[in-house]
Amino acid sequence: MTSHQPGQAPPLVLTVAGSDSGGGAGIQADLKTMLANGVHGMSVIAAVTAQNSLGVQGYWELPPEAVRAQLDSVLSDIGVDAVKTGMLASKALVELVSEVLADVSAPVVVDPVGVSKHGDSLLAGDAVDAVRTRLLPVATVVTPNLFEVEQLTGVKVVDESGMRAAAEAVKELGPEWVLVKGGHLPGEPADLLFDGTEEYRFTAERHDNRHTHGTGCTLASAIASNLAKGEPVPEAVEKAKQYVTGAIAAGFPLGTGIGPVHHGWHLRHA
């Protein structure tokens, strides 16, 4: 496992995602998560959203040449120990990012963002197939929620017993590991991690807290941070889950809608 010595750069993690003007999700959540988990976060902005606690009022994807230039800048000079992808918005951007990441040897965590916490679409309809056929095959870990599982595979999960079939369906699309997030099911939240053979289940206390904006971005970024530090995938996921559970418990109100998780929750008394 990588340790950070004074005068040395910490592990390097790149997020390729959309900007959240409200600061709770997207690039902003990714960078806060990376700082809180002891790595140096870098960003390629693929889209800009106008977003607050009430929802997404609009989004604008960046031109492919702008996204490619950002990727080239970071990868050619600084390098990466892990990559996390989030909102990629369009088919052209999904295909571009997939092409670049196919040549990156570092682990890649894909958060296959389809809709926001408020139900706003963040992915063009024709981009879903590109996520399915181009992006997932380059993923070390993919972290779909139940809606995204259905969007990608057609498999609808109604209770925890259906999560293995969902994981198998996503695994067939080519990622090394699948983490199916079951937080939308009733009862104790349970996630299933699967590599085609081994199965790991993670449970967490459900907090009576509606301030959960940014949980998906935060979890994927925490997993990427742990992989950059040299953790094996199951341990990287377990530690990321513990971090996110604490962040949800410390979530706070913001605006008049859904507030964010608290990315620095374990630093508050440091």
From TrEMBL:
InterPro entries: HMP/HMP-P_kinase_dom (IPR004399), PM/HMP-P_kinase-1 (IPR013749), Ribokinase-like (IPR029056). Residues 20-262 form the Pyridoxamine kinase/Phosphomethylpyrimidine kinase domain. Its EC number is 2.7.1.49, 2.7.4.7. One of its GO terms (cellular component) is cytosol. Keywords: ATP-binding, Kinase, Nucleotide-binding, Thiamine biosynthesis, Transferase. It catalyses: 4-amino-5-hydroxymethyl-2-methylpyrimidine + ATP = 4-amino-2-methyl-5-(phosphooxymethyl)pyrimidine + ADP + H(+); 4-amino-2-methyl-5-(phosphooxymethyl)pyrimidine + ATP = 4-amino-2-methyl-5-(diphosphooxymethyl)pyrimidine + ADP. It holds the Pfam family Phos_pyr_kin. GO terms for molecular function: ATP binding; hydroxymethylpyrimidine kinase activity; phosphomethylpyrimidine kinase activity. CDD domains: HMPP_kinase. Pathway: Cofactor biosynthesis; thiamine diphosphate biosynthesis; 4-amino-2-methyl-5-diphosphomethylpyrimidine from 5-amino-1-(5-phospho-D-ribosyl)imidazole: step 3/3. GO terms for biological process: thiamine biosynthetic process; thiamine diphosphate biosynthetic process. It comes from the Bacteria. The keyword Transferase applies. Catalyzes the phosphorylation of hydroxymethylpyrimidine phosphate (HMP-P) to HMP-PP, and of HMP to HMP-P. PANTHER family: HYDROXYMETHYLPYRIMIDINE_PHOSPHOMETHYLPYRIMIDINE KINASE THI20-RELATED, PHOSPHOMETHYLPYRIMIDINE KINASE. This is Bifunctional hydroxymethylpyrimidine kinase/phosphomethylpyrimidine kinase. The gene is thiD.
